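Saturday, quiet lab. Running sequence design on the structure tokens for the scaffold JK sent over.
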């Protein structure tokens, strides 16, 4: 069920060097999750557990599930024993109603079948909410880095916010709310967050830990990096980043969805 460009077992070795728990995302999740109050929370497709760790520190009883063992191995080091489970978002290995609430952070573009993943999230969740952050079609209007790699648009599949809401309601969520958010940091190292910093956006160490990067061939990557480096030196990239940020203020770098049964 998970669409995984690149080799996440290999990426896991360096993932946390450029990917962390963004304060922007933590604030966004927390604003919809509400008080922990000892509630159980499932982090679906949680990778190396950066966000799971923060939510655990805030008082949630966390459980992370991911399809890649090497990512989970690193999550287990952060969360302690008994908190990490291997499994696919479209076939969660848990009984019905086994978690109070759940999160999915910047992962739905990696799902082959988002509808199945949403149905599974609804099945394993009690009162909710399910809070997910996503990069929608609208959000991508502020991105430009793909142009440096000879692409007219981002190769990954990003659907409109209205389509995500429709799928959530069809999965059994009665109430769905969504709103755009804007990154004020680059900590999670997502492609959208990198559009706020010219130096990071031009850096292969940051780009290599994005799904976008792993959909490109070596020659395309090299040409793109050379073009980015040139514009970084001339100041053009800094201006493009500023323009992108102004656009993101209108359309958002990402969208948060909160859904309740």
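Result came back. Writing it out in full:
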């Amino acid at each position: 069920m998970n669409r995984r460009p690149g080799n996440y077992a290999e990426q896991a070795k360096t993932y946390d060097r450029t990917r962390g728990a963004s304060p922007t995302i933590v604030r966004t999740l927390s604003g919809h999750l509400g008080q922990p109050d000892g509630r159980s929370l499932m982090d679906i497709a949680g990778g190396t557990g950066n966000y799971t760790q923060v939510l655990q520190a805030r008082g949630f009883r966390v459980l992370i599930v991911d399809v890649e063992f090497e990512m989970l191995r690193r999550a287990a080091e952060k969360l302690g024993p008994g908190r990490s489970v291997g499994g696919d978002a479209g076939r969660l290995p848990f009984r019905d109603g086994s978690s109070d609430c759940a999160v999915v952070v910047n992962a739905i573009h990696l799902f082959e079948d988002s509808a199945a993943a949403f149905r599974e999230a609804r099945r394993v969740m009690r009162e909710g909410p399910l809070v997910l952050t996503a990069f929608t079609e609208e959000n991508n209007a502020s991105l430009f880095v793909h142009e440096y790699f000879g692409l007219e648009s981002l190769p990954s599949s990003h659907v409109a916010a209205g389509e995500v809401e429709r799928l959530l309601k069809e999965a059994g969520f009665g109430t769905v709310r969504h709103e755009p958010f804007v990154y004020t940091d680059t900590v999670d190292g997502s492609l959208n967050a990198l559009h706020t910093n010219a130096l990071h956006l031009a850096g292969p160490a940051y780009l290599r830990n994005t799904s976008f990067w792993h959909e490109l061939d070596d020659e395309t990557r090299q040409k793109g990096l050379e073009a980015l480096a040139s514009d970084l030196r001339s100041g053009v990239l800094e201006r493009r980043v500023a323009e992108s940020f102004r656009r993101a203020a209108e359309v958002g770098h990402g969208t948060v969805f909160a859904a309740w049964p």
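Notes for JK: The first strand starts at residue 40 and ends at 44. The CA atoms of residues 195 and 241 lie 6 Å apart. Ask whether to fix the surface positions before the next round.
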